[in-house]
Amino acid sequence: MNSGAKAPCRACAAKGRSNMKKSTFNTLLVGGGFLLGTAGIKLLTSAPVKNACVQGIACGMRVKNCYQDMVEQAKANVDDMVAEAAYITQSEAAADEAAE
Description:
Largest sheet: none
Order of helices and strands: HHH
Radius of gyration: 35 Å
Oligomer: single chain
Strand content: under 5%
Number of strands: 0
């Protein structure tokens, strides 16, 4: 009954890989990953993908500029409020000194 060959693991047998040795399977996975990576590099260096990336970066820069404008306006408003508060504090302090 036992001819010296290892019985496949349960996970491999459940997936239908009972005849394929583990090392062969791993070799195929590495080879497939290499081919997929090579195809991915070729895809990323193509002109349409580069154009899409440029458009995405340009959109991000427009959003950044808009955000910076909003922050600048908020800083200006806060500076105005601080200046008004300082003026009120100084005028109240001067009024208290005059009352004494």
